[in-house]
Design brief:
Elements lengths: L1 H8 L3 H14 L4 H13 L3 H14 L4 H13 L3 H17 L4 H14 L4 H13 L3 H17 L3 H14 L4 H12 L2 H7 L9 H4 L16 H4 L6 H15 L21 H17 L2 H13 L5 H13 L3 H11 L3 H17 L3 H17 L4 H21 L2 H16 L3 H16 L7 H5 L4 H16 L3 H14 L4 H13 L3 H17 L3 H14 L4 H13 L3 H17 L3 H14 L9 H15 L3 H14 L4 H13 L3 H17 L3 H14 L4 H14 L2 H17 L3 H13 L5 H15 L2
Helix pairs in contact: 1-2, 2-3, 3-4, 4-5, 5-6, 6-7, 7-8, 8-9, 9-10, 9-11, 10-11, 11-12, 15-18, 15-20, 16-17, 17-18, 18-19, 18-20, 19-20, 20-21, 21-22, 21-23, 24-26, 26-27, 26-28, 27-28, 28-29, 29-30, 30-31, 31-32, 32-33, 33-34, 34-35, 35-36, 36-37, 38-39, 39-40, 40-41, 41-42
Length: 762
């Protein structure tokens, strides 16, 4: 994989392809290898091979939008527009499901209609996107495209309906009116010209493997979009959606109307239900609340299951102060995604009106979480979710009823203002700039302070001053913000960053540590951890801060990260020549090591650190105990085995040293690591050339490998050592082996063997 990546970096596609294919030969279903192969083949112009790779990898990882996008590009190169469009649609859906930026999904929908202009689903997605953002002109063009596609397939009624939706957005648009007239009077060619070149393909819906898809006409259209980009709060937005859905239900087929079984009353026909819904809408728009409630209740009794009915009825109950009844209706509607936000907000208002602040807070925080998550990147979402999950519990656990009430009031006021969505986006941008390297900041933190808008403006201005090296002006702005929000910690974080920019590292580190302590006292361990990490970035040798960070990580259950910092802390003391303290730190870490992930082998790594200290301090007995522990934890640890062998020799225990060596050699022999066996034995013999057991093992290794010349060399030396040691029988056995290998001077060895035989009487 590394070879493939390096070759791809050098644009050597043939080498990259070869490397990735070798990787796939070992792991045929490896996602990264398949993706790499697809990329390399595509870049090399081998589009069919790239297609095969991308098709396979998207079956293994269907959630990766980038892979679907690459598949679409490959289909596009092969002039397969429909398949390319389907891949781009899959990419867009993956972006949305992962809560990534909707702009990325937009690009894929645009790609889909570019390569296959009659892609019905892509045009519908584009319409929804443009309509929700008030881009009237673009939304109208997508309506025209949908109308043109439906018309080309002979579905004139649905084409007319699409044009009618366009007229709700732009009542006087000439292109829409022209197409609508042509559809009504059968002037199909005129309609096509009015659509300004949208592609046609007879039988488009059939080609998509489906008949008319009426769900694509489920538009959330509000005439107000044309006149103003501002919208009301979540309840008003959802109410408009409910009214629109009920109005559109008149156009649905009988079997398309959701019905609960069994109904509490005899099931009514479609016409009767439409009549009830029509009366309910009329009463509701005229402000006749009781009559509207009666009509909606009759709809529910007929067994109709529509969240729009539940939501509207809940609003009417709420208006009549029937809060329990309202909550019951909102409970039904909240499970439907398009009604979730408005239902949570309405439920929060009901609970707040009844004085149940804790319950109200739970729903309002859910509203804020939904709104906030829609503004962040995917990698920020996990941080944000954890913040909101603990927020309500934090207020409740501390019994801060007044603070909770103030918070809910601020939230309701903020989300009830016109243009609140734009303010949310602006606030998110400023919060992200303020967060910098730390975890994501939430809108909830901002709403918890008074005059939050002015505070964020001051911090943004402080950042701008700092960018221009106007550091004292930046600090002054921070102090100005602190007048309004003295305990809003992001302001203090900004001050610490200004101190960093000024080069005042000691003051900045001290500030980060104080902020970390404040976050810890508030129970926000993630932010406290981030602040300690920021401090260590600028003062890596600050052992007190690192010890504080370790405690935070352990309390948060991040054991692997805590152990990593334990090792760094021990290394810091080691570099400061504080050997005793370093070993104490490693000993503490060793107690924590069993809780870490096994694949990191924390115990082995820490024991090696302790062993190094003992060896440097010539505390060999203690070092031997450490390396024996390593040997038990990791029998194949070469460094531990060889160090133990050396220590045993130092303590004049050669038998134990050889046993340690044999254990390591056996492991390598079983794994086929012959070159490593030779390297170890050569080094051992080089250090102790007169050691007969070591020389014997090296000789045997060469014999096993068929290295006759090297074997003869070591056999000759081995025989000399045996003779010098008076081990004549061993020497005779060695000489016989030499003779069996038939060296050039075999006669000399034969004579020596004969002489030894005469001396020994054999």
């Amino acid at each position: 994989m590394r070879a493939g990546a390096n070759a791809a970096w050098d644009r050597d596609w043939d080498q990259a392809i070869a490397a990735y294919r070798r990787a796939l030969a070992e792991f045929p279903r490896d996602v990264n290898a398949l993706a790499g192969l697809g990329m390399a083949c595509y870049s090399a112009g081998q589009f069919q091979a790239a297609l095969d790779a991308y098709r396979e990898v998207t079956t293994l990882d269907s959630d990766d939008p980038v892979l679907h996008e690459r598949l679409g590009k490959t289909w596009e190169q092969l002039d397969q527009g429909k398949q390319a469009a389907e891949a781009y649609l899959a990419s867009a859906e993956a972006y949305l499901s992962q809560e990534r930026a909707p702009d990325l999904a937009l690009k894929r929908w645009q790609d889909a209609v570019r390569v296959w202009p009659d892609c019905l689903r892509a045009h519908a997605k584009l319409f929804h996107y443009y309509q929700r953002r008030g881009q009237v002109k673009e939304a109208v063009q997508e309506c025209l495209a949908l109308a043109s596609i439906y018309s080309a397939d002979g579905e004139t009624d649905y084409a007319v309906q699409a044009c009618q939706y366009a007229l709700k957005l732009a009542p006087h648009d000439s292109d829409v009116l022209a197409m609508l007239d042509s559809l009504r009077y059968g002037e199909h060619s005129t309609a096509e010209e009015g659509a300004e070149g949208f592609g046609r393909d007879t039988g488009i819906l059939t080609a998509m493997g489906e008949q008319v898809d009426t769900t694509l006409l489920d538009f959330d259209v509000s005439p107000a979009v044309e006149s103003s980009g501002e919208r009301g709060g979540p309840i008003e937005i959802t109410r408009q959606k409910a009214l629109s859905d009920l109005a559109e239900s008149f156009f649905e087929e009988d079997d398309a109307l959701p019905v609960l079984e069994p109904a509490t009353a005899p099931r009514l026909g479609k016409a009767e239900i439409d009549g009830l819904i029509g009366r309910a809408l009329e009463f509701q728009t005229r402000g006749e609340i009781e009559e509207a409630i009666d009509a909606y209740e009759s709809v529910l009794k007929a067994g109709v299951n529509q969240p729009a009915v539940n939501f509207n009825l809940g609003l009417l109950y709420q208006e009549k102060l029937r809060f329990e009844d309202a909550l019951g209706q909102f409970q039904y509607a909240v499970s439907h995604p398009e009604y979730t936000l408005g239902s949570h907000f309405a439920m929060g208002e009901c609970f707040r009106a009844r004085g149940r602040i804790d319950d109200a807070l739970e729903h309002f925080i859910e509203v804020l979480k939904i709104v906030d998550l829609a503004t962040v990147r995917r990698e920020q979402a996990d941080d944000l979710i954890q913040l909101y999950e603990s927020l309500a519990d934090s207020y409740i656990a501390k019994g801060e009823r007044e603070q909770a009430l103030d918070f809910t009031n601020s939230l309701v006021e903020f989300l009830s203002e016109k243009g609140w969505e734009d303010k949310v986006v602006q606030a998110r941008r400023r919060l992200d700039e303020l967060a910098q390297e730390g975890p994501t900041l939430s809108l909830a933190e901002m709403l918890a302070i008074q005059d939050s808008e002015r505070v964020l403006e001051s911090t943004a201005l402080a950042q701008e001053y700092a960018k221009r090296d106007m550091f004292y002006a930046a600090l002054e702005e921070c102090y100005y913000a602190l007048d309004s929000a003295p305990v809003y910690l992001p302001i203090h974080r900004q001050m610490a960053q200004v101190l960093v920019d000024m080069g005042k590292m000691d003051a900045a580190v001290a500030k980060f540590v104080v902020i970390a302590d404040a976050y810890r006292m508030r129970g926000n361990v993630r932010q406290a951890t981030a602040m300690c990490q920021r401090a260590l970035k600028h003062a890596p040798m600050n052992t007190a801060v690192r010890a504080k960070l370790i405690d935070l990580l352990i309390s948060h259950g991040q054991i692997d990260e805590a152990l990593r910092h334990y090792i760094i802390l021990g290394d810091s003391h080691y570099q400061l020549a504080q050997m005793d303290r370093a070993r104490e730190i490693y000993q503490e870490a060793l107690l924590l090591a069993p809780r870490g992930s096994p694949e990191h082998q924390w115990g082995v790594r820490i024991l090696h650190k302790m062993g190094d200290i003992d060896m440097q301090r010539v505390d060999w007995r203690r070092a031997m105990e450490v390396y024996e522990q390593i040997r038990e934890l990791a029998p194949d640890d070469e460094r531990a085995r060889l160090t133990l062998m050396d220590l045993y020799y130092r303590f004049d225990e050669p038998e134990r040293a050889v046993v340690e060596l044999d254990g390591l050699l056996k492991i390598y022999r079983d794994r086929g690591k012959t070159p490593r066996i030779f390297a170890i034995l050569e080094d051992a013999v080089g250090e102790r050339p007169d050691d007969i057991p070591l020389r014997t093992r090296l000789t045997q290794a060469h014999l096993d490998a068929g290295n006759v010349e090297q074997a003869l060399e070591h056999l000759d030396a081995l025989g000399d050592l045996q003779l010098e040691a008076g081990r004549y029988e061993d020497a005779q056995a060695t000489i016989r082996v030499i003779i069996a290998l038939r060296p050039p001077n075999v006669e000399v060895y034969q004579q020596l063997l004969d002489q030894l035989g005469e001396q020994s009487g054999n």
